[in-house]
Design a protein that fits this description.
5-stranded mixed β-sheet
């Protein structure tokens, strides 16, 4: 890669990327991982702990394994990122034996480069760095966010929870992430309690972590594509099919029933 590949429009504009170490293990306590590596976890949970929302609200079920993630945010006016990968590798290289034991006991570790959709990146990871990755038994992961919604490619999810301080916030998801959470045809409603029963759980949890990093102002949205309810299972009586256009007819007014093409309820409409 050369400087010639960087566009004039993007040259000099600050762009963000993360370099992360992500560990999954069937039994380890996250505190043990932090102590062994001398690194703090931005995100972690322990096997057997109660599942919870990003706000800490308990969910049904227990975590099936331990997950630990250390993350370092970087900003650059140019396109280069490989030196920051080498920098984090140098920080964990002295803990080679711990990483080997981690994999030998059923765990895995991955170095992740996460591009946050701010513009063009292009670099070469040198052979020396790749050799160190292999020696430390680290996988290499690449996560690329799409460009901001005003330039297309994202879906908006409004999050509504049962807390008194609910902010009705909106977050952005890629088409792939949206399809993981809203799996049925035309589905635009989802309940947090049902997320644990979705297939591809590892990908679902990873998608949620990325989505929480993409809030968007309401005035900047181009529509709402889905609603995610936390601790609001009572709405299932109105949205049994998890679609806005399949709402219980008595819950909406006549104009909405015409819009959705749903039958009029037997009793008089109470909603106007």
């Amino acid at each position: 890669m050369t400087d010639d590949t960087e566009t004039d429009a993007e040259a000099g504009a600050p762009k963000r990327f993360d370099v992360e170490l992500f560990i999954v293990h069937p039994t380890l306590d996250p505190a043990e991982i932090s102590t062994a590596l001398g690194l703090d976890a931005e995100f972690s949970h322990r096997v057997g702990d109660q599942r919870k929302t990003p706000k800490g609200t308990p969910l049904e079920g227990k975590y099936r394994d331990t997950r630990w993630r250390h993350s370092r945010r970087h900003e650059t006016p140019d396109q280069w990122f490989a030196d920051k990968v080498a920098e984090l590798l140098g920080r964990i290289e002295p803990h080679r034996e711990f990483l080997k034991k981690l994999r030998a006991t059923g765990g895995r570790a991955c170095m992740i480069v996460q591009f946050l959709g701010d513009g063009y990146f292009g670099d070469e990871i040198p052979q020396e760095t790749l050799t160190k990755l292999a020696d430390l038994e680290l996988d290499l992961g690449i996560e690329c966010f799409t460009v901001p919604q005003q330039r297309g490619g994202m879906k908006n999810i409004q999050v509504i929870d049962g807390a008194l301080n609910c902010t009705f916030s909106i977050f952005q998801a890629t088409d792939e992430e949206f399809a993981l959470l809203f799996r049925e045809p035309q589905q635009d409603m989802q309940y947090s309690e049902d997320l644990a029963s979705l297939p591809r759980q590892e990908e679902v949890e990873a998608a949620l972590r990325r989505i929480w990093e993409r809030p968007i102002r309401k005035q900047d949205t181009q529509g709402i594509h889905g609603t995610l309810f936390y601790e609001l299972e009572r709405y299932k009586s109105y949205y049994q099919a998890k679609r806005e256009d399949a709402v219980e007819p008595s819950a909406v007014n006549q104009a909405q029933r015409r819009l959705f093409g749903i039958a009029r309820p037997d009793r008089e409409d109470l909603g106007g």
